[in-house]
């Protein structure tokens, strides 16, 4: 079976001076050591040690061959989002990053699908950058699950999602800048606990705010990390919707009726958890995601799908590649924007470090 990984990151070679496109302190940038290792940098601060598959396409392709992965959708590392920067500088930064991602994927266009990033803190600029990136060859857009205190149901962000639906650009939403960081010190708890909570918050926010009612159903939206804690807590959300009017005040349907509006990746690392996720979402809404090349990702791509109980060969093929091929298929002709749709431009958000 073909193996198609929808959740794989890249940090192209970007020098400190190039990081100054985004911020005067020169962040973020990549320090390459010359021995196959490197360090993601945020200004003067060391952020995370990394390996060369993150910036060298030949090393990535060798890793993919060794792991039996045929195709990856390649998205920026969330440190690179730049959501706290001045919107004009952030737009220039995203154009630079998007150009480098295209260059990174160019040696193997049939195996590496480039996803762009946008200055999500400014709706108008985000739409413009997405348009340029799509025209240049990007196959989707990678966004964080919030911009400061603005969640995905924020009017400006939902307007951007609607724009992506209109131009047929798939969206990959990734948790980042996790909540409660002051209580999650050590042991990588922001990744172990904060990431699932962030993703659950994003999904429920779109459901309970009525945002899904305002976004075209043609939007192709995928949440990373298995949708976080969403599948396990969906019954709790439905129960609350049925029994408390303040929960259902803005949502005409219970949360479980919106599961057909998005996809999730399979990065849950346990066949039993994946079985629940498939039961909640359906076999056509789950796609392989590994979080390559980070150490908390799936080390044997597709192994959890292959070990998941109760799947037949056709269903395993959907999860390993079929759903991803459909998700990233050539976009339909763009739909015209509603004539009366306003353009929301948000001010940059302070204090939300990449």
TrEMBL record:
Alphabetical keyword list: Decarboxylase, Lyase, Metal-binding, Zinc
Pathway of action: Secondary metabolite metabolism; quinolate metabolism
Residue span(s) of domain Amidohydrolase-related: 5-328
Bilayer-spanning residue ranges: none
EC number(s) from the headed UniProt entry: 4.1.1.45
Entry keyword annotation includes Iron: no
Taxon lineage: Bacteria, Bacillati, Actinomycetota, Actinomycetes, Streptosporangiales
Organism, scientific name: Actinomadura yumaensis
Family under the similarity heading: Belongs to the metallo-dependent hydrolases superfamily. ACMSD family.
Subunit structure, interactors included: Monomer.
Name of the protein in question: 2-amino-3-carboxymuconate-6-semialdehyde decarboxylase
InterPro entries named among the record's database cross-references: ACMSD, Amidohydro-rel, Metal_Hydrolase
Residues covered by region (Disordered): 331-354
